[in-house]
């Protein structure tokens, strides 16, 4: 039986390896040479050029377990963490890829056979979705695989927005894309939620486990869909979601990896209730933060580094909420290294720098956190609406280092939203005041941009105190993140 996350990773790679796929290492979380992308968000990213026919990799089938971060950009799950059973900022995506080799029929058969024969999942627990107009996929599922018609759900475009469908996958606003077919697992009627395509689909009863994308187009900046040189396949299955099923639990946070991290965090901070939501958030965030640093991102006030800083600060705030009296975050790293097995190699190599930078960041933020939280609490107590004004959110950002999404995270626990437009306006005002004063002020705008072509050149010792930094060779800024992403 393949049960532990480590066993599942090996089983997946072996299955596709035995079916003629080249087993390829995960690429970095910092996309190489792709200014359109904030972080690697899917297994296909490293193969983008191969799909476009611009690169010949010497093989036409590949399989990977790809580390991914979805905490900004087109795919952003930061706000889901702590609220759903299935979303993380960092996760591993198991995938198989065909570059102009096999297409729909084989892709569907491989996935189905892996789930129902190798992993022996009961077929009655599974249902699938297809893109509305994809009759070919319907026929394959129905006739070749034998899935009953009522368990094949057609999902169309959202009103008036062509290709804006859960069953039309795109990595970003441009690039390879195509219709897809997804496999869902029913965790049982005791859990709230409905089948895909129903109003209750956002519940966590039917959980999407595997997305099979039929890569057919290269989306241009003006929206034009150019056919790819050869139809290809890209699939992705979150390892934590399939591990939850194999381990007989509902939430990803109940699987081996997360339980180890949650227990360790509870022990360090001194919490008894292992179900506490903040422990889940911390267990999630230590993964994204550690892997991002291992891949060369450092906390900073701009670009990728600012996204990292925001995640660290969120984790520190949740630790504070649990009553942490000392630094705790970096102390989770040894446990993380232990549970990640082979997938944690990059952490082992960068252990010292990860610990050092997480600790420094936590200590720095801890100095203003308490006061900021006090001010926020007072403001929330005085509120007679359920919207916090942008001025206060800006003051917390400006004076206490509260990224606006952190303020929103605190507010959300009390069913309050932040006036983000007001926040933006306060920030713009501050910027123009600074400009009027001769540009001596801080350019707050830089905090919200990501670098352009970013190339990681390695770590450099900066000074005798051992503070270490990553060097980037950056192009111009290409993407502005909306505040609160
Ligand atoms: P969802 O609808 O649940 O948000 P998705 O449709 O955004 O998932 P895809 O872009 O299709 O996900 O990615 C392929 C697979 O990766 C998903 O089927 C799922 O198993 C996994 N996955 C996606 N996002 C996450 C996440 N934030 N955390 C963990 N696993 C994820
Ligand atoms: Mg999603
Ligand atoms: Mg989905
Ligand atoms: Mg999907």
From TrEMBL:
Its cofactor is Zn(2+). GO terms for molecular function: ligase activity. The keyword Transcription regulation does not apply. It comes from the Bacteria. Its EC number is 6.1.1.7. It is an enzyme of class 6 (ligase). Binds 1 zinc ion per subunit. Keywords: Aminoacyl-tRNA synthetase, ATP-binding, Coiled coil, Cytoplasm, Ligase, Metal-binding, Nucleotide-binding, Protein biosynthesis, RNA-binding, tRNA-binding, Zinc. Residues 3-485 form the Alanyl-transfer RNA synthetases family profile domain. It is found in: Cytoplasm. It catalyses: tRNA(Ala) + L-alanine + ATP = L-alanyl-tRNA(Ala) + AMP + diphosphate. Catalyzes the attachment of alanine to tRNA(Ala) in a two-step reaction: alanine is first activated by ATP to form Ala-AMP and then transferred to the acceptor end of tRNA(Ala). Also edits incorrectly charged Ser-tRNA(Ala) and Gly-tRNA(Ala) via its editing domain. Belongs to the class-II aminoacyl-tRNA synthetase family. This is Alanine--tRNA ligase. The lineage of its organism: Bacteria, Pseudomonadati, Pseudomonadota, Gammaproteobacteria, Alteromonadales. The gene is alaS.
């Amino acid at each position: 039986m393949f049960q532990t996350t480590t066993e599942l990773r090996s089983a997946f790679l072996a299955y596709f390896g035995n079916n003629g796929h080249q087993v390829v290492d995960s690429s970095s979380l910092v996309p190489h040479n792709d200014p359109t992308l904030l972080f690697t968000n899917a297994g296909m990213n490293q193969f983008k050029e191969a799909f476009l026919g611009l690169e010949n990799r010497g093989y036409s089938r590949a399989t990977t377990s790809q580390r991914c971060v979805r905490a900004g950009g087109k795919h952003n799950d930061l706000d889901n963490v702590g609220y759903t059973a299935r979303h993380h900022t960092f996760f591993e995506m198991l995938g198989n890829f065909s570059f102009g080799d096999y297409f729909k029929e084989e892709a569907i058969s491989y996935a189905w056979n892996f789930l129902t024969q190798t992993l022996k999942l009961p077929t009655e627990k599974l249902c699938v979705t297809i893109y509305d107009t994809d009759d070919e996929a319907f026929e394959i599922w129905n006739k070749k695989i034998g899935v009953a018609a009522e368990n094949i759900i057609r999902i169309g475009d959202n009103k008036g927005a062509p290709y804006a469908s859960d069953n039309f996958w795109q990595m970003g606003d441009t690039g390879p894309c195509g219709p897809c077919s997804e496999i869902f697992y029913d965790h049982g009627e005791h859990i709230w939620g409905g089948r895909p395509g129903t109003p209750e689909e956002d519940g966590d009863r039917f959980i999407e486990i595997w997305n099979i994308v039929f890569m057919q187009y290269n989306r241009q900046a003006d929206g034009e869909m150019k056919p790819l040189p050869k139809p290809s396949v890209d699939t992705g299955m979150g390892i934590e979601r399939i591990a939850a099923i194999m381990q007989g639990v509902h939430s990803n946070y109940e699987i081996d990896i997360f339980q180890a991290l949650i227990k360790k965090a509870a022990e360090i901070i001194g919490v008894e209730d292992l179900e506490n939501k903040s422990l889940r958030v911390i267990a999630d965030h230590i993964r994204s933060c550690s892997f991002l640093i291992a891949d060369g991102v450092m906390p900073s006030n701009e670009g990728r580094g600012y996204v990292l800083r925001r995640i660290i600060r969120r984790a520190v705030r949740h630790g504070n909420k649990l009553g942490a009296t000392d630094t705790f975050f970096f102390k989770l790293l040894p446990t993380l290294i232990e549970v990640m097995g082979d997938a944690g190699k990059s952490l082992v190599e960068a252990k010292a720098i990860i610990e050092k930078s997480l600790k420094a960041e936590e200590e720095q933020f801890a100095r203003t956190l308490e006061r900021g939280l006090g001010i926020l609490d007072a403001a929330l107590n005085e509120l007679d609406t359920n919207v916090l004004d942008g001025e206060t959110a800006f003051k917390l950002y400006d004076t206490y280092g509260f990224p606006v999404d952190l303020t929103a995270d605190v507010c959300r626990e009390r069913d309050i939203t932040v006036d983000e437009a007001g926040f933006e306006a306060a920030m713009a005002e501050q910027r123009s005041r600074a400009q009027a004063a001769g540009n001596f002020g801080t350019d707050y705008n830089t905090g919200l941009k990501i670098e352009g072509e970013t190339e990681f050149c390695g770590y450099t010792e900066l000074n005798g105190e051992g503070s270490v930094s990553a060097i980037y060779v950056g192009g111009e800024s290409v993407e502005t993140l909306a505040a609160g992403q």
